[in-house]
Design a protein that fits this description.
With 418 residues, the chain is mostly beta strands. The protein has a domain of 143 residues: Methylamine Dehydrogenase, Chain H.
Amino acid sequence: MNPRIPRRAAVVGTLLPLVLLAGTGCVRSDSTGGAGSKETGAEDATPHGYVEGAEEAAEHQPGLVVLDRGTGRVRLLDPLSAKVTALGRVEGAETLTGDGRFAQVGTAREAHLFDSGVWMVDHGDHTHYYRADPAAVGSVPGGRVHGTYSDPATTALTGPDGRVGLLDREKLEDGRAVRVRTLAANGSAGAAVPYERQLLVPVRQSGADIDRIRVDARNGDKGRTLSGDCPQLEGQALTPRGVVFGCADGALLVAPGEGKDGKLTATKIPYPEKVEKADRAREFRHRPGSATLAAPAGETGVWTLDVGEREWSRLDTGRPVLAVNSVGQGEPTLVLTDDGVLRAHDTATGKETARTKLLSEVPDPGTARPVIEVDTSRAYVNDPLAGRIHEIDYQDELRLARSLTVPGAPTDMVETGR
């Protein structure tokens, strides 16, 4: 029996009855995952939540896209069925990123896009979960990708030099990778993030080691620059509370203001103390839908940032950190250390509350990258040298629920279905 089933509804993959969907009374979603027109009740009206070519499921449909850098093979693992689907092969693969549905494999010159076929649309008071056939979509020029973020209209791929490729999201969902615009590199190490029907672009200020956030139109037309300095901006995260950017002196939160116009504002969340360069938070991880972030803090430390409370906390692992993630507010911080042990820490006190040995061998960081992906009930850790994905019940003292085998070496992994 699938060990996830007792914790989930038994109707995995079943189509929701249309009578229930039509009775929700909310705005229906179109093929881009955005908002469409209100239901009219007419016999010929499109059923609420309908997406052509996709099945609507009763629950979250997770997917794990894994890359084997050595062979360039890209595969999709379905944790519900343990089925592995080959998506394609990319010669010279160097990076893997994802935006919740699509995975991007970067080479020195191109970004190759793959549709995992699982995604969700959040309507606030309820959520729709979809499943379709996974497929390779195509490639666009631009090379390595270090940041990928999307909204219903735009997908932004940011390279390590700060150059941003903007893709038409609707065409992407139709199976075509079309780059509609490129934003030139501007010296910032941050990634562009579509947000609130606009595009947040980190911009290095002329003659200074300071970044600010420019709010552009979705089509890439330049807009206003927000007040609020972010020295040496690096790292970002999209949360329900706004978009967080990492700075040398803390974090910069971009979110709608409290005024009637709701214009975006930038607010600094400073570190509680002076932080050395090597100990800054540069790469944020979190469970989708959560506003509690985790990031490595030097070699043996971890930062957590409660965005709602605007409060930093730091814990010491005592061992070098390979990967981190946060389950959420009031929930544990998960840390994978260089001895192959996954540890749970109380975010408030920093105390270790559970541990489990996962990796018998730790890979060379230059050839593989273990990560911790977290969803609503499970965490997943890729084990590159063993060729496995470990499924962890983080609510049961880090119990190893399953070890799922995938062909080759899962050197990189992203979760989809979000």
